[in-house]
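Subject: design request, 256 residues
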């Protein structure tokens, strides 16, 4: 330093600061191949994957028509509801002893709350920097357990569900003018047939509709006396004249 020239200070940016500013993101350039630019690299990949799923979903909606059922009847206590496929695992859970009935709160709130709560807390419990699943056993275990449980419960729900009864109870039946003053309809009312098959004879729950059965009067009479499927024998205890009027009435019910 020469006299009269003053003093000069030189700063070196390679010297790390003692305290790192919290709002300055970490520089990942020292990890080549382990990171990428958000725009356009990462965002373009997300858009492409989203577009593939969207096109697939649109194709499914165009090819597979949505299943429609008859108009909802609040008075039909025999109707068995069926949720969409993504809720089938919860539907199956509510069938077990300690998750239904008096324990309904456990199956509807406690168990799902614990399961989803554990998944939400997983990122905070396992905060390791590793990306490989084998290096993160806690997070991997949570996810595998959740996937296995959902897959098993969904499969059990599909296998154990009575699909034929579900199809029958939701079948759309054409409106038919029913003569409720006829002897055949009065016989149906007298022997509580309408309590199972509905006052409009469109069926309810597991009980099929009595319209467009395609049965002859003799076949209807045989079913009325001997039962069929969920209908036990011996329900009809009327006279032969009443049985004939009932069977001919049902055989003649047609929406055509």
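Subject: RE: design request

Done. Sequence follows.
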């Amino acid at each position: 330093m020469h006299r009269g020239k003053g003093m000069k200070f030189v700063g070196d940016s390679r010297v790390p600061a003692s305290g790192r500013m919290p709002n300055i993101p970490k520089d990942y350039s020292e990890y080549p191949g382990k990171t990428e630019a958000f725009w356009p690299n990462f965002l373009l990949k997300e858009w492409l994957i989203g577009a593939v799923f969207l096109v697939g979903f649109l194709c499914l909606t165009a090819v597979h028509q949505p299943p429609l059922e008859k108009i909802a009847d609040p008075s039909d206590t025999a109707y068995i509801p069926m949720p969409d496929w993504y809720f089938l695992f919860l539907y199956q859970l509510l069938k077990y002893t300690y998750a239904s009935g008096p324990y309904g709160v456990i199956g509807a709130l406690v168990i799902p709350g614990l399961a989803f709560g554990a998944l939400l807390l997983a990122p905070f419990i396992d905060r390791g920097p590793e990306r490989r699943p084998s290096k993160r056993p806690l997070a991997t275990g949570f996810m595998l357990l959740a996937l296995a449980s959902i897959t098993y419960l969904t499969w059990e729900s599909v296998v154990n569900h009575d699909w034929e009864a579900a199809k029958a109870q939701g079948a759309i039946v054409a409106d038919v003018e029913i003569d409720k003053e006829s002897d055949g309809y009065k016989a149906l009312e007298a022997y509580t047939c309408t309590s199972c098959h509905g006052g409009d004879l469109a069926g309810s729950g597991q009980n099929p509709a009595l319209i467009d059965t395609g049965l002859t009067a003799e076949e209807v009479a045989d079913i009325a006396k001997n039962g069929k499927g969920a209908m036990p024998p011996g329900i009809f205890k009327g006279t032969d004249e009443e049985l004939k009027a009932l069977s001919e009435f049902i055989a003649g019910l047609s929406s055509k």
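The CA atoms of residues 122 and 139 lie 6 Å apart.
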